[in-house]
Amino acid sequence: MSALAVGVIGTGMMGEVHARLLNDRIGSARVVAVSDPDTERRRMVAEAVGAAEFDDPMGLIAAPEVEAVVIASPDHSHAGFAVASVQAGKPCMCEKPLATTVDDARLVVDAEVALGRRLVQVGFMREFDEGHASLVSLRRSGALGEVVAVRSTHVNPAPWAPGVTAERVITQSMIHDIHSARFLSGAEVEAVSASVVPFAAGSSGVDDGAVRFVAARLELVGGAVALLDVNVSSAYGYRVVAEVVGSEGTARTSEGSAVEMWSSGARVEKVSANWPEHFSAAYLTELTAWVSAASEGGVTGPSAWDGLMANVVAEALVDASTRGERVEIARWERPAVYER
Ligand SMILES: NC(=O)c1ccc[n+]([C@@H]2O[C@H](COP(=O)([O-])OP(=O)(O)OC[C@H]3O[C@@H](n4cnc5c(N)ncnc54)[C@H](O)[C@@H]3O)[C@@H](O)[C@H]2O)c1
User: Fold this and answer.
1) In the chain, what are the domain boundaries?
2) Which pLDDT tens digit goes with each residue over 286-297?
3) Among 103, 194, 231, 304, which residue's beta carbon has the most beta carbons within 10 A?
């Protein structure tokens, strides 16, 4: 079988990571087309992988030589490109979040339901992380008993953009943890509340009103709870730790690095500097699984439905953080194409 011909939309940090992994590490794929309004970055990535350059991302999706699409452009543009991929009948790997609003995410789900099958895989790569996948296997095996709680801590080294608001922290960063709460517990969310800690007034280099920490409490159908927190600015590096508390046992992803060091009266273990380092293996596993499924004309892993549900919870959390109140979430009927 010939290598899957992939077009990449958005050649920023994440688009470049995906393009290089597809081209250099996955023998069954090659990047044939890239599109980005930043012509310098586009050229750099096109030359690195030997791809053609497209001015118009919709033209890339429609191009007959492009068999499958990776969407790594800014969040607000994802849903439109994902709908176009579905309507062109081409499998796509759409970076998280699926959309920035519930209404936009719903358009993607509606497009797949109209088609009658899935063509969108959402970039919630933690499903492909060894530690997170082990937690799911343990939960499914029954070894932990009934799920009582899920905990997740998500630590960024520094704000990723100026003036980061609670809405951006929740929709861009905590959206990963929201998805983790759902796939680690196997339950949907029925109510949320949130607490937000801003940077102290006058913190150097930080805009007024920028958010430093968000804590969320998700009430899950069946009675369990998920406790999630995102630290925007740890000043020490990047960390993600997830834990499933069960009635018969508790399991947690390991923080351990390969090496411990004893120095200056302390024992230290290295912390990842950033997300590409921490989840490098997960991104490769995610793309390998996508290429394998897309070569057969389909997709696997997190679905547009998962993307929509994450947006539903994120929107409720933004509302809860703004109003300082508990917000209930209506039940959604899952279409048959999303039965796993
Ligand atoms: N899964 C993860 O862990 C993870 C990590 C980081 C980023 N992301 C997601 O990946 C996406 C890209 O993030 P990034 O960090 O690479 O951002 P980035 O700003 O580095 O790159 C975005 C690129 O998209 C280009 N762009 C802007 N509008 C476009 C359009 N209409 N069509 C095509 N390209 C367009 C920009 O010029 C830029 O080069 C975001 O949605 C982000 O949330 C996911």
Assistant:
1) 4-126+281-303, 130-278+310-338
2) 999 999 999 999
3) 304
Q: Is the CB of 12 under 6 A from ligand 1?
A: yes
Condensed to tens digits (0 to 9), the pLDDT of residues 201-231 reads 777 777 777 999 999 999 999 999 999 999 9
The CA 75 to ligand 1 mean position distance, Å, reads 7
pTM for the structure as a whole: 0.96
Q: Which atom of ligand 1 is nearest to 123's Cα?
A: 1
What are residue 193's DSSP bridge partners?
Answer: 217
Cα–Cα separations (whole angstroms), residue 314 to 164, 170, 203, 238, 329: 16, 6, 27, 22, 11
Question: What does pLDDT average to in each consecutive run of 10 residues of the chain (340 residues)?
Answer: 94 97 96 98 98 98 98 98 98 98 98 98 97 97 97 93 92 98 98 94 77 97 98 93 97 81 86 89 97 97 98 98 96 93
How confident is the model at residue 257, as a pLDDT? 67
Quote the CATH superfamily of domain 4-126+281-303: NAD(P)-binding Rossmann-like Domain (3.40.50.720)
Q: Give yes or no for residue 100 CB within 6 A of ligand 1.
A: no
Which atom, in ligand 1's list, is nearest to the CA of 41? 39
Token look-up 């046992």 returns 249
N residues, the chain: 340
180 close to ligand 1 (CB < 6 Angstrom) = no
- 327 residue type, one letter: V
Structure tokens at 92: 């796509």
* H-helix segments, the chain: 13-25, 39-49, 57-62, 78-87, 102-115, 130-141, 166-168, 175-185, 275-278, 280-295, 304-323
For residue 13 and ligand 1, the question of a CB distance below 6 A is answered with: yes
Q: CATH code for 130-278+310-338?
A: 3.30.360.10
Taking a C-beta distance cutoff of 8 angstroms, is the pair 67, 41 a contact?
no
